[in-house]
Fold this protein.
Amino acid sequence: MVQTDTISQLPLARELHWLQQVVQTRLQFFTDARSENKGKAYLPPPALESAEPNPYARFALQAGLTAQERFLLMLAFAPHIKPGLLDQLFANYLKEEGAYPEIGGVRNGQSRNFIPTGETALFLLAGPHLDRRLESELYLSTESRLFKEQLLYLEEVKEGEPRLSGRLLLHPEYVELFKSGRIMRPVLSSQFPAQYIETSLDWDDLVLPKQTRQQVAELQRWVRHHQTLMQEWGMGGKLRPGYRALFHGPPGTGKTLTATLLGKATGKDVFRVDLSMVVSKYIGETEKNLSRLFDRAERKDWILFFDEADALFGKRTDIRDAHDKYANQEVSYLLQRIEGFDGLTILASNFKNNLDDAFTRRFQSIVFFPMPKASERLLLWQKAFPQQLDISSLDLDALAERFELSGANIMNIVQFLSLQMIDLDIKEVPLALLEQAIYREYSKEGKLI
């Protein structure tokens, strides 16, 4: 990413000045009594230099944006970088605010700034001429490049209202990019129900059976090479986008850690979906929440991790009432969005049979994470203790044989034990204290030794 202190803002300044000129010209001719001038407003955009260290200029050049596309981007961007610009321009030419419905625009929210709508964009691009308006409206359709790639979008309007009366908005990620050259990771919120997760551990810290490791390696190969496969090898037209994997097995066996290590090893961001923020008892809300998530994740090359996926991806039921009907619709919608997502989607469940069969048929990989065997538990014990503790008197082989524990169980035990040792100010681990920590972990899960 470009560092903020090296960014030249001259291209943005020139682009905003061009936007101002176009708006002024359109308004001047609009208020001119001579009707033959009503449609005139076009001014060529300023040239963009590829050598200038500016993220907007680089983006516009690489994307090959047309003058109309650049104008729409600047119109939506102006309230974020020069909030009073549009207000002042319209105030200079229009005597009565709100008396010109063809111009559109709204004032709402805390800023009270003039926010352009689709109608505003259409007015500035085409004026009052119907043929030009219909031609320019293509740039505001869902099939246009800026809208299809979700740089721009029109805010949803109430049923029955014209679509173009919605606010013309620039995606927040591109606001950040054009301002600073950086796109910040989204944070967990109602608008983005997922949290970025990472780990300081490495593959050597993960203890898995050989077969499970081989299957995880398959996922890693896909993440590394899927762009080559789909684009350079021409498989994009033959294969569905993305990759879908199921991790199943008892809690604490490494499913989440594996997902984060896949991201760390391949340089991809991993987001754990917070299902409590996705699933809603209100009809249609679950789909909306999922739509926000997948819309944000499109073309980001992220890894989406759905932990405890049974809550969302469970088996469909026979329809007995309206609730069953809409619950089944949610599962169908999920199938559609997951199949269209171009990144890696990982569903994690303690029990494979809890998931709907329609999902399991669509997984490219189903990876089982079993409880570790005695030999694997020994490795987990050996890796778990901090260097500050003296474990020379412990028979770790006997511990591994005697106690059937998961990796997460063992780490909980070592954490509890380490805090006890710090409090007692001792370094050599007493067997009695370790067994106390083990019994405590068993009792948490209602198990008997």
Summary: The chain has a mean pLDDT of 86.
